[in-house]
Amino acid sequence: METLGFDFSAGRLVAGVDEVGRGPLIGNVVAAAVILDPAKPVPGLTDSKKLSEKKREQLFPLIQERALAWSIAWASPEEIDELNILHATMLAMQRAVSQLSIVPEFALIDGNRCPPGLPCPAEAIVKGDLKEPAISAASILAKVYRDREMAELDLRYPDYGFARHKGYPTAFHMERLRLLGPLPEHRRSFRPVAELLL
């Protein structure tokens, strides 16, 4: 497979990059970057949304153990409100790639655009988490990390149900938001939260 002149089969250091958490009303948008080791394959990699929570939790340490390098980064609710969710997502991805312990020669980004400021050339791949194992691995790291953040938030604010809906605007979350009001961790620029702050 060749892309932009790069032959991935030649053992180049390719980072897969993905993000989780653009849609929720609360918490960080989380990105991960992974450089897989061809000598230590991780079986069962696919889009994190197609895996059970149990399977993702099993793959999380396996990816960290077998990858040549991995990194998890995020942009905060304050940064999301300041920059907007798209630019905050790009920032989280750029941070994830920049924090890798090995500088990749190329980055494969899930989606239709590449973040600016990367330390290497990059290509965006729509549905990349289904097509490229390194992106699948990144999606799993980001998803498990963010779900754990939501579980911690659920312990601090048990009345909001974060462990169930992970911060997405479900009917239950919206009802709790109207009844109890926004928390400091809610994204104030998102309309359902902004309308309650008027």
Number of helices: 8
**SS-derived structural category:** alpha/beta
Low-confidence stretches: 1-9
Shape: globular
Q: Order of strands across the biggest sheet?
A: 5-4-3-6-7
Compute the CA-based radius of gyration.
17 Å
Helix content: 40-55%
Describe the 3D structure.
- By secondary structure, this protein is of the alpha/beta class.
- It has helices at residues 53-66, 77-83, 85-98, 128-131, 133-156, 162-165, 171-180, 191-196, and strands at 2-3, 6-7, 14-20, 29-35, 69-75, 106-110, 122-125.
- The radius of gyration is 17 Å and the shape is globular.
- The model is unreliable at 1-9 (pLDDT under 50).
